[in-house]
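Exercise 4. Each item below gives a protein and its sequence. For each, produce the structure-token representation.

Item: Short-subunit dehydrogenase (Umboniibacter marinipuniceus).
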Amino acid sequence: MDLRSKVIWITGASSGIGRELAIQLSLRGAKLILTARREEQLEETRQLCVNSEQHKILSCDLNDYHQAAHWAERAVAMYGHVDILVNNAGVSQRGGVIDTPIDVDEALIRLDYLSLVALSKAIMPHFIERQSGYYVNISSVAGKLGAPMRTSYSGAKHAVVGFSDSLRFELFPHNIKVTVICPGYVQTPIAVSALNEKNEAANMYDPDIENGMPVTTAVRKIIRAMEAQKNEVLVANGMPWLGYHLRRLLPNTFPALMTKMVKAKKQ
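Answer:
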């Protein structure tokens, strides 16, 4: 898929993977619609892009996903159409399952899963009418295997994978593609904004994230997956890469193996 001149709507574009996607896609000549809550940070993202004046900002709080139809209408009006929706917005979580109140689970499901579903449904009539469209849904390695201290996050990201797989089958007759991206540890602020047991930003240092894949490298891999329109792509190295493949190849023995690896890593 040639991304030049494609209209690409990116959620979570104010930082991390979303911001870097905007920068690298602008270098490929894409026309961007940048979405997040904080308009000033979206403007920072836009100014980092090539041909910044041509890109649009659509600021909204995706937690209020019942407004998705309105946002989709506004997005389409900006360029007359949308070619690609990148559902990247989300938040992570840190905390033991027994200590995590249901409010945190609800917050994760609302932003990481339900807002993605709502936005996907809202733009769907436009894609079907054009008999063309492309969803790029950012899940996680935690959406393919259980992640300790991240049960709420892992559950929401598993839901993203299941929804995307089902969506792919339903929309195939309309020439609409769906790619699921499963990042591992990537150097972004995700650990800082992760929700703790009090449903507040954890503001924590995570050495796995700090020593993870550079965000520029991760985004290059994501863009290659978009160009190839692959169904599912792992963007990871180290233990997340190993865990992803062990879970697939050895589903019954994987939990014991993973527990041993985590214990060995802590020693």
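Check: The chain has two domains: 7-236, 238-267.
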